[in-house]
Design a protein that fits this description.
The chain has helices at 2-21, 46-54; strands spanning 30-38, 41-44, 61-72, 79-89, 96-109, 112-125. It is α+β, with helices and mostly antiparallel strands. A hairpin with a 2-residue loop joins strand 5 (96-109) and strand 6. The chain is globular.
Length: 127
């Protein structure tokens, strides 16, 4: 279980660091079969997902992660991750709460296990 927690924590740190710096860099984390649901709109495949993320209507963003909760997936080494936190966009002073889930799938790249995002669901939390 400790490995599961470590992989999830490292993934979340990397994902939001890339998101906050240059959303185009996230393309390495998705595949043709990946799917993003962003505020109830769905996008399939790396080009469609990255187009959506790069087209978001803000220039700057900062994610502040509050919780990272991983669980084992349905196949060996697959990981389901639920993230909650707050984000600040552009010059906004009041953070917005969000939740995001990732389903991570391992793949062997040059003899090393790396994870890609098979499913990604993002929602702002209002109220």
């Amino acid at each position: 279980m400790a490995d599961l927690v470590n992989v999830a924590a490292m993934f979340v740190d990397f994902y939001y660091s890339q998101f906050d710096q240059d959303r185009g860099n996230l393309s390495t984390l998705y595949r043709d079969g990946s799917m993003l649901t962003f505020e109830s709109a769905s996008f399939k495949g790396t080009p469609s997902i990255i187009e959506k993320l790069q087209g978001l209507p803000f220039q700057q963003i900062k994610h502040q992660v509050s919780t990272v909760d991983p669980q084992p997936g349905v196949a060996p080494d697959h990981i389901m991750v639920l993230v909650t936190g707050q984000l600040l966009v552009d010059e906004e002073q009041r953070p917005m709460s969000y939740t995001q889930s990732f389903y991570l799938v391992p793949e062997n790249v040059n003899g090393q296990t790396q994870y890609y995002v098979h499913n990604d669901i993002f929602k702002l939390v209002y109220g």
